[in-house]
Amino acid sequence: KTREKKRILSTQAKAIAENVCMSVHKVRKVIDQIRERPYEETLMLLELMPYRASFPIFKLVYSAATNASKNKSFNEADSVISKAEVNGGAIVKRLKPRARGRSYPIKRPTCHITILVRDSSKKKTEQDIYLENKYIFKDRIIEKYSEKEREKKNGSKNKSTWFPTW
User: Fold this and answer.
1) I need a labelling partner for 145 at 20 to 30 A (CA). Which of 30, 56, 117, 165 fits?
2) At CA 99, angle to CA 94 and CA 100, rounded to 5?
3) Could you tell me the pTM of the whole model?
4) GO cellular-component terms in the record (predicted)?
5) Which of these, 9, 21, 31, lies nearest to 109 by C-alpha position?
């Protein structure tokens, strides 16, 4: 199977850290604080946070901003964290020797962190708008329901077919 790669918008830059040895829940606690914040404010927040997860995220945000300034010539002061997500990675399993020749399993969870930085001063192109709308999930049931609601508003008097009319 081939996996289609999502393209990044021209107003965004990306940085990914994979297999970070930390629980997803602990990293999400920090990521939720920095989402949709300006770049400089985010760095100050991460420096002052007392969590262990803040240091890898700090390095990643710094890397994403550097990618934006070097590769796409963005101004770091105008950068905003547009998307920050954490996904679970592989669980590293080890055995710890215990008394009487027994062993206890040790599970070390890992996670993948993705940070997208966008330049708030630049405007989106037509291609960017197309790429944003391309990956939106469309649910058929919700679409049918919304069509029925539109028909009701328009005044069409179609009787339902599932109930017999004697």
Assistant:
1) 165
2) 110
3) 0.70
4) large ribosomal subunit; plastid
5) 21
